[in-house]
Amino acid sequence: MQSILQNIAKHVSLTPEEETLFLSKIETKQFKAKTILLSSGEIADCTYFVNSGILRSFNINDNIIEHVLHFACEGWWIGDMYSYISGKPGNLFIEVLEDAELVIISKENHQELYKEIPKLERFFRILAENSLVSHQERLMDNLSLSAEERFEKFCSKYPTLIQKIPQKQIASYIGVTPEFFSKMKARLLKK
Predict the structure, then answer these.
(1) Least buried of 19, 30, 160, 178, by fewest C-beta within 10 Å?
(2) Of the candidates 37, 160, 40, which has an alpha carbon nearest to the alpha carbon of residue 88?
(3) Quick one: how many helices (H) and strands (E) in the chain?
(4) Measured distance CA(103)–CA(81) in Å, rounded
């Protein structure tokens, strides 16, 4: 539980009583690799904090092509925020890529925590703002950078993941086919 409390402490200070209350509203669970936590068409009723392991969010288009939107490793948060906030069915899958220990906060408990510990609203607002900035930056990168430059940024953002996740998922994240990615990577290694 220290990991999530340290994550919160980066932005707000909780009293020992508030920490105890917060911990009473969350659940920690272990998940095996390849577990699907959320499927497209379901309504997201919780968010996840990664104590250990790796997760990804992705969608599958009409041509059955996966598009990876996000990876989350230790100390990161992940969820289908469209579905979670709107209460409507989402279009994302959330999958465990590497055995994981996750902290789960239900929407109901999340809302109760806002009322009982108002400073958590500030904490989650900061997370939402950081996420918005990150997604805007990624969108601009996809519009303006070459595939090689996007891969270099991926390597900078996720240095520990390069050896842990399949190349086809990295290719999907940077917006290229696995075949193009393989050729590009071979070219980069020759430099």
Answers:
(1) 160
(2) 40
(3) 8, 6
(4) 16
